[in-house]
Amino acid sequence: MAGRFITFEGPDGAGKTSVLNALMPVIQAHVETPVKLTREPGGAEISEKIRTLILDPANTAMDAKTEALLYAASRRQHLVEVIRPALAKGALVICDRFVDSSVAYQGGGREIGAEAVLAMNQFATDGMSPELTIYLDIPSAEGLARIKAHRASRQYDRLDQEQLAFHERVRATYLALAQAQPQRIKTVDASQPLEDVIKACEAVLKAHLGAAWQSCKEETL
């Protein structure tokens, strides 16, 4: 396709939303092509409805495989309705989470198995993979402490109910993915001050996009 596909990943509390909110104006200032920011689960009307179902704190009886299948279904609709059309038009698509999240959270956190979750998502996405993934890494206890500190200003969802061991399995799976795929997955230390995390992510994007990342008169960072 004409466009480019980049994803951001990280365990809960890594600060992806804050980083992406700060990075978007920077990316738009340096890249000539249209930039589309989207998220998972969600990003499309049907996908957002599935997101609500998955993350509803009341749905404590949801089976782990049901959860994994719902994420894959949401992703499929998002891909068909939003990501592929944007790529076809030549956009740079930045997605907050993609298949790696399912492998980490359901494969590792829920202990379904990374290979099983990857297989169902390869079916859902026709094997599509981002060209670059920026993984924001943070120790699980530190990430959960951030969530607790900011609970009043963020949505409390079903995953927030999980214990430390669950989040440690998620992080361990992410780290294993990053070690196995160093060309695609670039790790940034998210325990740094937010400004430093943003600068590190910008440096990764600049290095990856090369000539597509153009200088501008006024530096934003």
From TrEMBL:
<keyword id="KW-0545">Nucleotide biosynthesis</keyword>
<feature type="binding site">
    <location>
        <begin position="10"/>
        <end position="17"/>
    </location>
    <ligand>
        <name>ATP</name>
    </ligand>
</feature>
<dbReference type="Pfam" id="PF02223">
    <property type="entry name" value="Thymidylate_kin"/>
</dbReference>
<protein>
    <recommendedName>
        <fullName>Thymidylate kinase</fullName>
        <ecNumber>2.7.4.9</ecNumber>
    </recommendedName>
</protein>
<feature type="domain" description="Thymidylate kinase-like">
    <location>
        <begin position="8"/>
        <end position="198"/>
    </location>
</feature>
<dbReference type="GO" id="GO:0004798">
    <property type="term" value="F:dTMP kinase activity"/>
</dbReference>
<keyword id="KW-0067">ATP-binding</keyword>
<comment type="function">
    <text>Phosphorylation of dTMP to form dTDP in both de novo and salvage pathways of dTTP synthesis.</text>
</comment>
<comment type="similarity">
    <text>Belongs to the thymidylate kinase family.</text>
</comment>
<keyword id="KW-0418">Kinase</keyword>
<dbReference type="InterPro" id="IPR039430">
    <property type="entry name" value="Thymidylate_kin-like_dom"/>
</dbReference>
<dbReference type="InterPro" id="IPR018094">
    <property type="entry name" value="Thymidylate_kinase"/>
</dbReference>
<dbReference type="InterPro" id="IPR027417">
    <property type="entry name" value="P-loop_NTPase"/>
</dbReference>
<dbReference type="InterPro" id="IPR018095">
    <property type="entry name" value="Thymidylate_kin_CS"/>
</dbReference>
<keyword id="KW-0808">Transferase</keyword>
<keyword id="KW-0547">Nucleotide-binding</keyword>
